[in-house]
Amino acid sequence: MLTEDIRDRRAWRRSDLSQRDWLVPVPRRCLDELDAAARQVGSDPLPPVLLDPNQFALGACAEVMGHVREKLRGIGLAVLDRVPVERYTGEENRALAWLLGSLLGRLVAQKWDGTMIYDVLDTGRALEYGVRRSVTNLDLTFHTDAPWLDLPPEMVGLYCINPAIEGGVSRFVSLCSVHNELRRRHPERLARLYRPFPWDRQAEHAQADSKTTERPIFRYDGGSFAAAFNEKLVETGAELAGEPLDGEGREALEAMRAIVDSPELWVEFTIERGQVQFINNRQFAHSRTDFKDSPEPHRKRHMIRLWTREEGRRTFHA
């Protein structure tokens, strides 16, 4: 268990950051490279997952993504501002999203079926077992992506084709700061968060496999600190396992949620068309308010999501 405060740039509060801390301007040279890549993809198509940045001249883009990587290792958030998505077709945008993500890290599957490029948009499906909230217009409470995995994605990218016409505000919080606050306010609860909790695997597994798994909220191996958080998936995990969550576990999660939800800790913004949001998924959590969509299908809120992870295999269960 980590017994000291995290004191570097990862541990920030709302008052420490402003928009200029996470925005990464996209220079003209990079835009020219993206235009050329889109033309190449349009004239000589391949599925995006077969594209490699080395097949294109993307030196300026690689430099920009280096700046993104630096921010992700620090404050954990970077927003490219911006890609002119309105110039490109749907397939060209998917290709450019893939190429930019590939410049950041090794892209991996986001679903058990091997889906590598995930569309975040309201499908109209009702929320039920196996349906992720990310394909509805409902709010998403603070969480990390795929927290039940032994190797969750390291970085998460959201390439904005269209924002919502109303709502869909993004919020972002440092789980390093949350850990520091737990040490100060609830040291007696912190140890429980280092022990396993049941997690709902959201039907992302073979039919014969268990619907739940167990892993802690916090991990510390003496050199690196990692966090995974989604209180709703722990609640449904306990229900699916048929065993009520222990009282100590409930109290620890309640204490953590109260800190995570503290407005003085998180920052918020609304992602704009053409912006690309990148998140460090192992030390920071994000949320989204509910939203109202455009009645025109081609203007519906639509993000292209990508995951990176360097360890293990590229399959969902690394």
How does this structure look, described?
- 28% of the residues lie in helices and 21% in strands.
- With 318 residues, it is of the alpha+beta class.
- The protein has a single domain, classed as Double-stranded beta-helix, CATH 3.60.130.
- A six-stranded mixed β-sheet has the order 1-2-13-5-16-3.
- Strand 10 and strand 11 form a beta hairpin.
- Helix 2 packs across helix 3, helix 2 packs across helix 4 and helix 5 crosses helix 8.
- The radius of gyration is 19 Å and the shape is globular.
- The relative contact order is 0.22.
Compact description:
This protein has 318 residues and is α+β, with helices and mostly antiparallel strands. The protein has one domain: Clavaminate synthase-like (Double-stranded beta-helix), CATH 3.60.130.10.
Helix and strand element order: HEHHEHEEEEEHHEEEEHHEEEEE
Biggest beta-sheet profile:
6 strands, mixed
The share of residues in helices is 25-40%
Roughly how many Å is the radius of gyration? 19 Å
Low-confidence stretches: none
Report, as a whole number of angstroms, the end-to-end distance: 25 Å
Keywords:
single chain, 318 residues, alpha+beta, Double-stranded beta-helix, 8 helices, 16 strands, globular
Task: Give the SSE layout.
Blueprint: H1 19-22, E1 23-25, H2 28-43, H3 59-73, E2 77-81, H4 90-104, E3 118-120, E4 140-143, E5 155-162, E6 166-167, E7 170-174, H5 175-185, H6 187-190, E8 197-200, E9 212-215, E10 218-220, E11 225-227, H7 231-241, H8 247-260, E12 267-269, E13 276-280, E14 284-288, E15 291-292, E16 302-308
Helix pairs in contact: 2-3, 2-4, 5-8
